[in-house]
Amino acid sequence: MTTTTEHPHTWTAKALVDGLATDITVGLTDAEVAERRSEYGENRLRKEAREPAWRKVLRLLADKMTLVLVAAAAVSAGVSREWETPVVILAVITFNTVINYVQESRAEESLRALRSMSVDSSRVRRDGQERYVERTELVPGDIVLLEAGDAVPADGRIVQAARLQIAESALTGESQPVTKTADPLDDPNLPIGDRTNMAFMNTEVTRGRATMVVTGTGMSTEIGTIASLLGTAGVDKTPLQRRIDQLATLLTVIAIVVVSIVFLLGLLRGESWSELLLTAVSLAVATIPEGLTAVVAFTLALGASRLAKRGAIIKQLAAVETLGSTTHIATDKTGTLTLNEMTVRKLVVAGHIYRVTGSGYSSDGKILSDSEDALPDFRRTFLAMSLCNDASVNDGVLVGDPTEGALVVLAEKGGIDVVGARANHPRLAEVPFDSDYKFMATFHESSLPGTGPYRCYAKGAPGVLMSRATMVRTSEGDRAITDEDRDLIATAVDELAHEGLRTLMIAGTTLSDLPDESSLFDAVDNLAIYAVVGILDPPRPEAREAIATAHEAGIGVHMITGDHLTTASAIATDLGIEGEPLSGGTIDEISDDELRARAAHFGVLARVAPEHKIRYVEALQANGEVVAMTGDGVNDAPALKQADIGIAMGITGTDVSKGAAKMILTDDNFATIVSAVRDGRGIYANIVKFVKFQLTTAWGFVLIFLTAGITGIAGGAPFTALQILWVNIIMDGPPALALGVDATEPGTMKQKPRSPGERLLSRNRVLRILSLAIVMTVGTILTLVFADDIFPDSARDPLFAGTLGFTTFVFYQVFNLLNVRSDRGSVFSLQTLTNQAIWISLVAVIVLHVAVVNVGFLQDLFDTTSLTATEWLYAVVVASSVLVVEEIRKAVVRAVWRL
Q1: 283 phi/psi in degrees, rounded to 5
Q2: Over the stretch 545-595, which tens digit does the pLDDT of each residue have?
Q3: Is residue 357 part of a domain?
Q4: Number of folded domains in the chain?
Q5: Which of helix, strand or coil describes residue 213?
Q6: Are 600 and 549 in a shared domain?
Q7: Do 331 and 371 belong together in one domain?
Q8: pLDDT tens by residue, 592-614
Q9: Helix, strand, coil percentages, rounded to 5, for the chain
Q10: Contact 795, 788 (CB under 8 A)
């Protein structure tokens, strides 16, 4: 830790302040702050170094398909003095590189924008004045003032504390807030969780107030140490990246084989080797889908941008596809499936259960009884809730612990002026909540009639307070508790737990004397039970529908929570989550093999620790599943790293969890995850559409040239080099990019997830591509052979047959673009009209091709000649055969699917 003192938790407050050359009441001067900032730097976690622009460009140019194109351009330039072919190839390389660069940069900017959500100001004391400063400006020696609701902006030693508790779950995994004091500690090697006089960066103050002197900033904090360790972990390629690599290798091999065959056949016919080499190079370019990398980047970036608008930030473009192939989602409950707004739904008093209306932290609501009897007087019960409480709620805004906030709201619904009650009954002492004894108690002066001079109020786990109770409150007053009373209360608690409600008991007692500090704990005894409350964190309204959608899509949903198993199971049932319940204790007892065998069948994981999460993810992955995992704390980072798609919370998540994740939810909403799955599936489908479209064109070229090479049709070279590039670049550019914005097909979320091992080119897809390529080949070859016979008036032009065959092949691509948009849906459905970009690109391509055929200088460049209206119509009719064939196949598929 970079400070002027070591082991600050062992120093007295005065000695530490002196050692840091600061002053508790005055703080640092502006000059001292500037000097220390130059020494220690900004108070921020170090971000991963940005990849320099030149290195990013080199990485993109090192793509396999791009390297083949570079080689093709070099060969073309070396054997020909013409500039057209190598320039066009280099233009393609430039286009691909620019698209990839821009889209990767866009994703990075989106993530940087998300980081602005972090807490960015803190209240400090400088030059004797209190002021708010940017958290990045804090330096060692700064005096920071903390109160309930604040995020701790740096590591620091507490020098003054008043009933201070800090939630450190984001750092240590401890679920309950930790009580903090200003007392020095003796052991210099205490674990972080036991340093009770220290506050750590990115933890939260849940109760009380404190003055803290900053001892560590930025990467010199404890959370910075963890972040630096996580930063050394490697990242595997996503399934899409692996499939793209496989496809690139396969197509490169095919290109080499086909080009070699065409080249050798030409040599055998005695053609010029230089002309053959130019044609072979152009055919190689056509055989390889050089636009694949660009279209994948473009499509993924569009999806990432769309997801960002819906509440998700994708850190790696290819992670969108990974999410689209997800088979299981392991999600936190609080804030993701629920609103993270604790609300009291049931109130149990004297064996009677009352309903409470309203939700969140609004005091609008009522307390209702199922009987016609008048409600009893709850004011003393609500007074206890108000006083044994550190939270405050102002205009629906909570400051403090959510559970305590729920009690404040209930008291307000019952007519209590919480602020006034606290002023009239000042707190004299307290026993802070601790997970070991599971209750909190406060001591107050009492002005209530019929009571002693002091009152003790307590709230906590029903079982714990029940064991300390000797009385029970009824409508007639307090009386001795009976076994029947205990049974009634225990039954009511079980009923609330089965309804998914967290239970909390409220109790109190009268004291004749105020206990001293050492006997406060023992004084919480002989209690009278006032009430039991059932608290619910209401499910998000959209959560049930999102879970149902996930199940319909064949995705397993697993809720992970710190709640007790009974409560968690009830909540899961209410949300529609299916499967067996599992507790953290049970996970410890079962073997890896058993967990692996049963992992997919668990719907609820309750009372789990961080190590349980990562073990569960590993068990699912061992069965070949693709797992999405949510998390928000530092302790979640290993599981987020292990998951195929780690999802961090943008609102409640720490910087470390965001750094470990591949996706960040800006709204912490489970429905956004399901929406991302849908978009991921749609994006993958659009990429497959492009592959089918471009490979049909490429393999059509291959079959046409092989046929011509073997038979000698059109001299073995039916199209010129630039004609090949024209079709490959102009045709496969704008229309293919337009496929990237195609809407997700209806019914996408009614299909099961793809197998993680599915190839981009499955057997069925290959057969479909080949069949359509054969249709194109037959139509184009027949046109080249019989063009002069069909149109004798144009036969005198030596360029006519080639132009008509060229034009026919172009229109094949127009119709095939419409074919690939759906595997089942007809081109003549309304869905066809939803993508304006495709229609605009098709019109543009047709207009450009008309120019190539009819404009003088383009005719010279592309070796074309003008066509009559009848000849244009012929090309369109012949090319439509590919549409007819595919429509027949789709009709058969739809008929079979309906059976």
Answers
A1: -65, -35
A2: 999 999 999 999 999 886 778 888 888 988 999 899 998 889 989 999 999
A3: yes
A4: 4
A5: strand
A6: yes
A7: no
A8: 999 999 999 999 998 787 788 88
A9: 50, 15, 30
A10: yes
**pTM: predicted TM-score of the whole model, two decimal places:** 0.71
Separation of alpha carbons 846 and 843, rounded Å = 5
Sequence-distant (≥ 6) Cβ neighbours of residue 191 within 8 angstroms? none
80-107: per-residue pLDDT in tens? Answer: 666 766 776 787 678 767 766 775 676 5
Using the structure block, give the residue that is written with the tokens 């739809």: 894
Buried b or exposed e, range 390-408, using 16+ CB within 10 angstroms: bbbbeeeebbbbbbbbbbb
Nearest Cα residue to 571 out of 541, 598, 604, 549:
604
> Could you tell me how far CA 165 lies from the centroid of its own chain?
31
**Domain residue limits at 24:** 8-43+138-230
**pLDDT band at residue 499 using 50, 70 and 90 as cut-offs:** confident
- Out of 142, 150, 155, 332, the active site residue is 332
Q: Are residues 496 and 621 in the same domain?
A: no
Neighbours of 751 (CB within 10 A): 12
Helix (H) or strand (E) run with residue 147 in it:
strand 143-147
State which of 208, 230, 252 marks the end of a domain: 230
What is the C-alpha end-to-end distance of the chain, expressed in Å? 69
Catalytic, 863? Answer no
Q: Do residues 370 and 519 share a domain?
A: yes
Regarding whether 671 and 786 lie in a shared domain, the answer is no
Extended strands (E) in 595-750: 602-606, 627-631, 645-649, 663-665
Same domain, 482 and 406: yes
Alpha-carbon span 581 to 212, nearest angstrom: 43
Q: Which residue, of 521, 536, 551, is where some domain finishes?
A: 536
Place of tokens 């007892």: 589
Whether the CB-CB separation of 745 and 736 falls below 8 Å is answered with no
